Amino acid sequence: MYNPFKKLFSFMSLDMAIDLGTANSLVYVKDRGIIINEPSVVAVNNKTGQILAIGEEAKKMVGRTPSYITATRPLVNGVISDFEVTEQMLKYFIEKAVAGNKKVFGFFGYSPRVIIGIPCGVTEVERKAVRDAAKSAGARTVFLIEEPLASAIGAKLPIQDPGGNFIVDIGGGTTEVAVISLGGIVTYRSLRVAGDKLNDDIMQFAQKEYKLLIGERTAEYIKINIGSAFPLKDKKEMAMRGRNLVTGLPEEVVVFNDDIQRALERSVKQIISAIKVTIEETPPELLADVMTNGIYLAGGGSLLRGLDVLISRETKMPCKIIDDPLTSVVRGCGLALENIENLANLLEKDEEWGAPI
Q1: Are residues 338 and 276 in the same domain?
Q2: Residues of the signal sequence (predicted)?
């Protein structure tokens, strides 16, 4: 029977999708698209326990705070490491997302339904932590979806079909490698080598080669500007500034893209090894599809120069970076939200699941 209030209730529920990433968190609101994209960083006063800043403002404080203030990431390798801080961060993002509808929410008492992307292979305890944090932050009902599925949906791959889809999602904390068919993950590998590890590789390189202590932001800046997966024809250089560990004084050295490529080489090899192992475990019929369609790269780590070319060389298969790889997970969660009736089988539902309004 037709319900004249259906659209009104749907508007008031303000359903949203969240990519709760180790490095960045993104929020997609139904019928509005991505409205929040901020670092997953929280600044806390250790003396009082008070949260001073979240997101962009907190990221600006990293490495620049007095000893009693910590700018921290409450998620490590894609899972919650500090429940209370994660809860406050989620609450901040949810409240910011519904800011324009506060009066409607307050009057009718509605809370949003939320879809959150999670890494493959996380434990039931870790899944429950995500659900509990979201509900404590104000969510009415929480659905979870594994990140490779979300990325594949975001890339608009035909994951409901019987063909094989091979996706590699290189985020901040984890790299997810998965083969998807008929709406499910057939085989996967999840490793804690991703964007943050690449930053750490550059920091370790600076210490080992130059006795130079640099911050994470500096390492990331170097990675983005001159980092690569294999040696490039064009030589690039840039200044690397930090503190000399011997003298204790500020120092600047010039580094070249070949130096950074060698620093990243071990981690890149680990990612490629995980891809090869996943290929070996893929059923032959699906592998035939993958050889035709290729490997799809998603996540911010996929933007490392030459990574797609190197993977293609190593696997002897086509490899392509999807459009807008940085937002693939949240876009996939958002598409699942927009088509929740058709894609409900891909979502992990909590105990309070009910039929969509």
Answers
A1: no
A2: none
Are residues 79 and 184 both part of a single domain? no
3-state SS assignment for residue 61 = coil
* Same domain flag for 279 and 184: yes
Separation CA 296–CA 306 (nearest Å): 14
Structural domain includes residue 155: no
17/114 same-domain check: yes
In a domain, 45, yes or no: no
Residues 140 and 238 in one domain: no
Indicate whether 61 belongs to any domain.
Answer: no
Ordered per-residue pLDDT tens for the chain, 357 residues: 444 444 444 444 578 999 999 889 999 998 889 999 999 999 999 888 899 999 999 988 877 778 889 888 999 888 888 898 999 999 999 888 887 555 444 434 557 889 999 998 888 998 999 999 999 888 888 999 999 999 999 999 999 999 999 999 999 999 999 999 999 999 999 999 999 999 999 999 999 999 999 998 899 999 999 999 999 888 999 999 999 999 999 999 999 999 999 999 999 999 999 999 999 999 999 999 999 999 999 999 999 999 999 999 999 999 999 999 999 999 999 999 888 888 888 888 765 444 443
Same domain, 183 and 319: yes
User: What is the enclosing helix (H) or strand (E) of 142?
Assistant: strand 141-146
Q: Which domain holds residue 129?
A: 11-39+75-150+328-349
Same domain, 204 and 101: no
Beta carbons within 8 Å of 331's beta carbon, 6+ residues apart:
28, 34, 153, 154, 324
Per-residue tokens: 238: 């840039």
Annotated binding site: which residue ranges? Answer: 22-24, 172-174, 220-223, 300-303
Tell me the angle at which helices 257-281 and 216-226 cross, rounded to the nearest 10 degrees.
80
